[in-house]
């Protein structure tokens, strides 16, 4: 059972994730989480379908990237700190929920990850780019 304090902490974290851009988290003295190991055989089957998304192109494109590169998304931390507030193990977990619809942090990271993956960058190279941009 969640205490009142737990609920308020989670709400504050969600609000901060929606308002503060991920690259500003370093200025607050927050460190990025360690990247999780991608799970073998992971797919994008649980990424929300386009029918559940709004009309905003940036939202649809970020979810498309998660569906296209699930093994990469599963090997990255999410810079909006939803691991602590929502229990997401990776960036892919965000896209298995509605979180990125209202979270610019998730979408910006997905945009970078999708661009680099499309260019053929490895998971290690993408992790380094994410750490540089958001760490």
> Cα distance, first to last residue?
33 Å
Q: How many β-strand stretches?
A: 0
Q: Uncertain spans, ≥5 residues at pLDDT below 50?
A: 18-27
Mean pLDDT: 81
Radius of gyration: 14 Å
Shape: globular
What percent of residues are in strands?
under 5%
Q: Helical element count?
A: 8
What share of the residues lie within helices? Answer: 40-55%
Structural class, from helix and strand content?
Answer: mainly alpha
Taking the sheet with the most strands, its summary is:
none
Q: Give the topology string: H per helix, E per strand.
A: HHHHHHHH
How would you name the oligomeric state of the polypeptide chains in this document?
single chain
List keywords for this structure.
135 residues, mainly alpha, 8 helices
Can you put this structure into words, describing what you see?
- This protein has 135 residues and is mainly α.
- The chain has helices spanning 4-19, 57-68, 70-73, 82-86, 91-95, 99-102, 104-118, 123-134.
- α2 packs across α7 (104-118) and α7 packs antiparallel against α8.
- Mean pLDDT is 81; it is low at 18-27.
């Amino acid at each position: 059972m969640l205490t009142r304090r737990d609920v308020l902490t989670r709400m504050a974290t969600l609000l901060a994730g929606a308002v503060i851009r991920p690259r500003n988290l370093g200025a607050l003295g927050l460190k990025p989480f360690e990247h999780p190991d991608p799970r073998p055989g992971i797919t994008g089957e649980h990424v929300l379908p386009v029918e559940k998304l709004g009309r905003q192109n940036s939202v649809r494109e970020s979810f498309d990237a998660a569906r296209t590169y699930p093994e990469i998304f599963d090997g990255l931390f999410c810079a909006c700190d939803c691991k602590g507030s929502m229990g997401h193990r990776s960036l892919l977990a965000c896209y298995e929920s509605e979180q990125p619809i209202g979270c610019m942090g998730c979408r910006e990271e997905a945009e970078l990850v999708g661009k680099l993956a499309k260019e053929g960058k490895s998971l290690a190279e993408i992790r380094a780019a994410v750490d540089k941009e958001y760490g």
